[in-house]
Prior knowledge:
The protein is 48% helix and 2% strand. The protein is an all-alpha fold. Helix 5 (64-77) packs across helix 6 (105-118). The relative contact order is 0.17.
Amino acid sequence: ALPLWGYVYVRTLEPPPAGEDDPLVIGANTFSGNCASCHGGTGAGIGNAPALADGAVLATFGDWRDQAAWVRIGTEAWPADTYGDSQKPVGGSGGVMPAWPTLSDAEIAAVVMHERELSGADMSEENPDNEELYAVARGEMTLAEAGLGPDAERSGVTEEDLGG
């Protein structure tokens, strides 16, 4: 009985494995199945698709809500000629960001979390900056309820564009 007790005790000291309901796991899986073919599995970018890793996402989208709007509506429906904090030209690199109307708000939020993590952001649940993003990723709030980021608002994106 002592070896069994020892095994059980040691297992209680280890953090539980990431579950299928963890938004970061969902984001990584959704990214892998939908985004990695253009942006690469590690977010390094492929061809005309920009890199997302090593600070690239954070330099383009300081506010996660702007990034979520870009992922939701893509190049074709973006109402302005530029996007992001750095005012990148829409389609400027020759690439086209597809719209993702088939992904739920929770899946988009989870992908945004994953991409921001690839970019070096602290995406822990303990970070108060992530509170609304986690709420959307868990289905407790919609993207429209979270509102628009400053770039999306300036660009003319509406809450209806987000599916609200």
